[in-house]
C-alpha cells in the first residue's frame, strides 16, 4: 500500500458526504423508529390483538434475529460485490424493506386481529431490515480511520436521525390523527393552535396509519438512495481477507474483543430503556396524562436537542471526556424522566409546561447518549483488526445490530407484558389505577434504573482516544510494510 492510500484511509470527509451517509440513519429511523415507537400501540388498539400477543410477536422475532443477524454479517464480510462492499445492499434490499414495512399496517378486514399475519409481516420486515442495517453500519468504519472525522460524521448522522425522529414521534401521530375518523377541534397545546384531530387509537383508524406510513416509506427509500450514490468506501478488507472470513469468526471476535463486549452490553441496555419510552409514550400521554392531542406539540419540543444541539457534542466531549459525556447526558435523561413523572400528578397534568420541560431534558439526554455511542463502533472494529489482523466490520456490526435489536425488542416486549400483567385494556377509553401504574413503571422507573446501569457499564469501557490512534497507525504501518 502506498502513501496515497494511507492518506486516503485517513480521509477528511466533505459535508456533502457526511449528509449523504446520514441519509441512511434518516431512512432507517423512518422505518424502524415508527415500528419501535408505534407498532405495539397499533397492534393492541387499532388491530385489536391482546397486549400479551403483541409482546410475544416482538419476542419471537428477536429470538430469530439472534441466529439471523450473525448469518447476515458473515455473508456481508465474505462477499465482494462489484459496486462496493457494503453500498449495494442498500439498493438490493431497500425496495423490499419499504414494501414489507408498509404491510405491517395493512388495513384490510382479512388481517384485522390476526396474530399470525402480524407475526409473519414483522418477521419478514426484520429479516430484510438486517440486510440493510448491517451493511449500512459497516459503511461508517469504511469511510475513514480519522477519529475526529468519525466524531463529525456521528454528529451529522445523528442530526439527520433526529430529524427523522421528529417526523416519527411528533409528525407521524399528528398526521394519523388528522386523517383519522371522528375528528373534532382540539387544542394541540402549542400556543393555542387548534386542529381537527381524530381518534388514532381505534380500529377505524387503520387506513390512516397505512396511508401515512406508506408515504414515509417512499421518503425513506429516497434517503437510502442518497446514501448509496453519495458516499465512498475507503477502508475495506482485501480480497484475501474476505476469503479468509469464516462463520466461526463471529464467536472468536466476540470472545476476544473486550471493547466489543462492553459496548454491546451498553447498546443493549441503552436501547432497551430508549424503546421503553418510545413504546409507552403514546400510552402515557393518552391514559396517565389524559391529553393525547398534545403528542405533536410536546414531541416537537423534545426534538429540538437532537436536531439543534448536536453541534455541541464534540465540544462537550472535549470538556468532559468520552466517558464523562455519557455520564452527563444519562444524568440529564434521568432529570427529564422525573419531571415527566411529576407532570402526571393531578395538579399538573392539565398544563403542558412540565411536559415541554420534561420531554426536552429527557430527549436531550437520550438522543445524546444513544446517538454518540455509535461513534465508538468504528474504534471497536479497529481494535478487532489490530488484534486479529482481520477487518470484519460486517460481523462486528451484526453483533452491535443484534444488541440494538434485542434492546428494541425488550423495549417493546417488557412494556407489553407489563401492560398485560397490570390488566391494560386496549378497547377501553380509560384504564384502571393498576393499569396506569404499569404504564408509569414502563415509562418512568425502569428506564431510570437502566440508565444508572448504563453508567456503570460505560465506566469499564477500555479504549481511550490515544489507544485508538495508536492502533490505526500501527495497522497502516503493517500494511505498508507488506
Automatic annotation (TrEMBL):
GO terms for molecular function: symporter activity. The keyword Transmembrane applies. InterPro entries: MFS_2, MFS_trans_sf, Na/Gal_symport. One of its GO terms (biological process) is sodium ion transport. One of its GO terms (cellular component) is plasma membrane. CDD domains: MFS_MelB_like (cd17332). The chain crosses the membrane at residues 26-43, 49-68, 89-110, 116-139, 160-180, 213-231, 262-282, 294-313, 325-344, 364-383, 395-418, 444-463. Keywords: Membrane, Sugar transport, Transmembrane, Transmembrane helix, Transport. The keyword Oxidoreductase does not apply. This is MFS transporter. It comes from Weissella confusa. The lineage of its organism: Bacteria, Bacillati, Bacillota, Bacilli, Lactobacillales.
